[in-house]
Amino acid sequence: MRRFLLPFIGLALGLVFVLPASAQSTPGPSPSVMVASVGTLGRILVDGKGMTLYLYSRDVKGTSNCYDACETRWPILRPGADGKATGAADVGGTLGVITRKDNTLQVTYNDIPLYYWFQVEKAGDAKGQASGGVWWILTPGLSQITPAVQQASPSPSPAAGALAQSPSSLPRSGSTPLSLVLLIGGFAAAGTGAVAVGARLLARGRRRPE
């Protein structure tokens, strides 16, 4: 009997020492939000894979206003399967989760909803920065939503301005447009010339002997 019990006792003792060690070596889930240095932007917030995160100027703290076509271009940062947001030790702010009006969950940073740019290709891309004057990267410690910036519209070229000039803006002579004055003058000159030619032909006809 003792011979059969010894292997089981040895197996039990092995499990006692092996299981805690394996549990400690298993890595936990990657954080939802981390900090990374990206080019000239410096230290900014990224997700666990290094993808740049953005805020939307038309949001208010704790509420997202990006849905439908907007959300297609700017996907939201979702929490993990447990519905919680996790962050690296140096994020410098408070992470949270809000429930959107479509009942999906979105991660927030200091109550600021977080998004991706749909054209991001790799970690470190920040092509969405300042898009439309309403999308911005976040720096560690940011606590207010960056306000929108009016985008400058391109000024028309001189040629385009000349083509767009309306007849009413052409120079006038008195109350009559200059173009009409020139046209009348042309007809008058042509009529005067025709009268002069007719008079000469008539005079020659009278001089002929009968």
Give a topology summary:
Elements: H1 2-25, E1 34-38, E2 42-46, E3 54-56, H2 69-73, E4 95-99, E5 105-109, E6 112-113, E7 135-137, H3 158-163, E8 172-173, E9 176-177, H4 178-207
Antiparallel strand pairs: 1-2, 3-7, 4-5, 5-6, 8-9
Short description:
With 210 residues, the protein is of the alpha+beta class.
Q: Which keywords apply here?
A:
31% helix; two-stranded antiparallel sheet; alpha+beta; single chain; 210 residues; three-stranded antiparallel β-sheet; elongated
Walk me through this protein's architecture.
By secondary structure, the chain is an alpha+beta fold. It has 4 helices and 9 strands, in the order αβββαββββαββα. The protein has helices at 2-25, 69-73, 158-163, 178-207; strands at 34-38, 42-46, 54-56, 95-99, 105-109, 112-113, 135-137, 172-173, 176-177. The protein has a 3-stranded antiparallel β-sheet with strand order 4-5-6, with no helix packed on it. The chain has a two-stranded antiparallel sheet with strand order 1-2. The chain has a two-stranded antiparallel ribbon with strand order 3-7. A hairpin with a 3-residue loop joins strand 1 (34-38) and strand 2.
Mean pLDDT: 77
Question: Total number of helical segments?
Answer: 4
Please list the strands of the largest sheet in the order they lie side by side: 4-5-6
Order of helices and strands: HEEEHEEEEHEEH
Largest sheet data: 3 strands, antiparallel
Classify the helix fraction into a percent range: 25-40%
Q: Give the strand content.
A: 15-25%
Structural class: alpha+beta
